[in-house]
Design a protein that fits this description.
Elements (H helix, E strand, L loop, with lengths): L1 H18 L11 E10 L2 E3 L1 H4 L5 E4 L4 E6 L2 E10 L2 E6 L2 E8 L2 E5 L6 E6 L1
Antiparallel strand pairs: 1-2, 1-3, 1-9, 3-4, 4-5, 5-6, 6-7, 7-8, 8-9
Length: about 120
């Protein structure tokens, strides 16, 4: 009987931990976003003019992101609140706006470069 009680207690504990996560699986922003344009110094350019290969931003349902540009990968956590997006990584933060099917990261690494992403 004691063994059964310990098993039940362990299961209750596991379900409590699962319920405490910040699951964003219902968030419409979750998914893969692809860069469609870049602007810098008042000029709009295609992504191909600035970067080799695709530039992507994947927002995962667990609140994590993967950012790939010019063969480099960055990871961290993301949050969208009131139309503003914040990406936090160990080597720096990015911010911008998120409205409908568009995410715009602004002033990337304080270079004056903005990148627009679409689904």
């Amino acid at each position: 009987m004691r063994k059964f009680s310990l098993i039940v207690l362990a299961l209750v504990f596991v379900f409590c931990l699962v319920g405490c996560g910040d699951d964003k699986s219902d968030d419409p922003n979750v998914g893969l976003w692809k860069a469609v344009s870049v602007s810098a110094f008042g000029m709009d350019m295609s992504v191909a003019d600035v970067f080799e290969g695709d530039v992507t931003l994947e927002l995962k349902p667990n609140g994590k992101f993967v950012f790939i540009a010019a063969g480099e990968t960055g990871t961290g956590s993301w949050n969208i609140e009131d139309g503003n997006i914040d990406l936090r990584a160990s080597d720096g933060n990015l911010s911008g706006t998120a409205t409908g099917d568009t995410i715009t990261l602004v002033n990337i690494e304080e270079t004056g470069v903005d990148i627009v992403f679409k689904r």
